[in-house]
Design a protein that fits this description.
- This protein is mostly helical.
- It contains four helices and two strands.
- It has helices at residues 2-10, 15-53, 75-114, 122-136; strands at residues 61-66, 69-74.
- A hairpin with a 2-residue loop joins strand 1 (61-66) and strand 2.
- The relative contact order is 0.10.
- Residues 1-8 and 124-130 have low confidence and may be disordered.
């Protein structure tokens, strides 16, 4: 009996359990995607800050938010810290991309093992016809000061 219970943890008992496991894996994948996007936005912000303060006088005062507290520093103190933070974020993005590829492979293996296919319903066929109509239509834009 104990052997059967152990087998249940490794092999799902029915289709609903398989579907739940698959949905959970897809959810994890989406979370990784969103975290990567969020961190890439932060890297972009760090780059903007670095480009804005690099040409300035290194002794000039600037303000930096550290843990919710705004502190006064000089550019020569802040620039290396921003650079280190950016490099750290890029490292994390690299690790998340590796985790993403691993999760994609895991999902592909799971799909192959349980022969999972995504259903494409009638709504997609209808969407295709509306897309064809939508491409023929344009957007009408009036003059900027036209609301009188």
């Amino acid at each position: 009996m104990a052997g059967k219970a152990e087998g249940d943890f490794r092999e799902p008992a029915n289709e609903q359990v398989v579907a739940n496991m698959y949905a959970s894996m897809r959810s994890d994948l989406n979370q990784i995607y969103s975290k990567i996007t969020e961190l890439e936005m932060e890297v972009s912000e760090h780059s903007l800050v670095m480009n804005a303060i690099q040409p300035l006088d290194p002794t000039r005062r600037c303000y930096r938010m550290i843990g919710g507290v705004l502190v006064e520093r000089t550019i020569k103190e802040v620039l290396p810290a921003v650079q280190r933070n950016k490099e750290g974020l890029e490292e994390v993005i690299t690790r998340l991309n590796e985790a993403l590829e691993k999760k994609k492979k895991e999902i592909a293996d799971f799909e192959g093992k349980y022969k999972i296919r995504i259903r494409k319903g009638d709504s997609e066929v209808k969407d295709d016809s509306s897309k064809k109509e939508g491409t023929a239509q344009g957007v009408l834009v009036g003059p900027a000061g036209g609301s009188q």
